[in-house]
Amino acid sequence: MHRPDTGRPGRCIVIHKFLVHNEGDDVGVATEDIAGGQEITGVYMDSGGSVTVTAQADVPLSHKVAIRALKSGDDVTEYGVRVGLATQDIAAGDYVHTHNIRSARW
Questions:
Q1: How far is Cα 30 from Cα 4, in angstroms, rounded to an integer?
Q2: What domain range includes position 53?
Q3: Residue ranges with strand state E in 45-105
Q4: What's the structural domain count of the chain?
Q5: Which ranges of the chain have pLDDT less than 70?
Q6: What is the CATH number for 55?
């Protein structure tokens, strides 16, 4: 999502904080460091749609943020495929990493 940059005519400010590869994915990838407590908007790369969640924790640049709640044992989907398994309950906006998912590869 973009909005006009009133300080620089003809330029836009990017207002999304994360990208989601496909509609139906469970996580998005942070496009900048995200601070816990922020309301953040992400853009679906395949459709151009958007999703907004409140960050439950700090999420570093290029790391994953949950865009929907997951229960322990649920599959975690990214790129339209199963990439992991939740090892605990995950709330929308949670930082998703090795502390709460394990790889689906092994």
A1: 22
A2: 2-103
A3: 50-54, 64-66, 75-78, 81-86, 95-96, 101-103
A4: 1
A5: 1-14
A6: 2.30.130.110
